[in-house]
Amino acid sequence: MSGLLDTTRNFSLYSKKNRLRRAHAAAANGYENIGFFASAVVAGNVAGLSHSTLNTLTGAYLISRAVYNFIYINNDSQGAAAARSLVWLFGIGQIFTLFIKSGNLLTNKAANLL
User: Fold this and answer.
1) Would you give the DSSP letter of residue 48?
2) Mind listing the pLDDT tens digit for each residue in 48-77?
3) What is 63-105 written as a DSSP string?
4) Does residue 9 fall inside a structural domain?
5) Is residue 11 part of a domain?
6) pTM for this model (two decimals)
7) Residue 95's closest CA among 33, 31, 11, 45?
8) Which keywords fit this entry according to its UniProt record (predicted)?
């Protein structure tokens, strides 16, 4: 019951407005990355990557995006910014891994044709 009467929590419009701005910025960042992610998934499918590899890497990317958005929206400290950057790099690493594995598989298939 005391939680309902807690006047120390900040329920101001400013607090909510700031979080809404951060949510919009997080969504914009996701839109900027979606083409890169989609092309990596298409490359993996065209190359014939195993389902487990493709699912693991795409799942890890999607989880990293969810964690990134949570950190971006709910925190505005310097430590949170560093954690957010590390999570973003992890997600981009999954995309690069998809491209590299796809390229290596296609290179091996092309070498076997010769």
Assistant:
1) T
2) 999 999 999 999 999 999 999 999 999 878
3) HHHHHHHHHHHH--SHHHHHHHHHHHHHHHHHHHHHHHHHHHH
4) no
5) no
6) 0.82
7) 33
8) Membrane, Transmembrane, Transmembrane helix
Tokens of 19: 């979080």
CA dihedral 81, 82, 86, 89 (to 10 degrees): 70
The verdict on residue 5 lying in a domain is: no
Give the tokens for residue 11.
């329920």
Place of tokens 């019951």: 1
Identify the pLDDT of residue 7: 60
Degrees, nearest 5: CA angle 43-45-46: 65
28 lies in some domain: yes
Domain with 76, as residue range(s), is 19-113
Instruction: Report how many domains make up the chain.
Output: 1
Question: Amino acid letter at 79?
Answer: G
Q: What is the largest CA-CA distance in the chain?
A: 76
User: Which pLDDT does position 4 carry in this prediction?
Assistant: 58
- Do 67 and 11 touch, CB atoms closer than 8 A? no
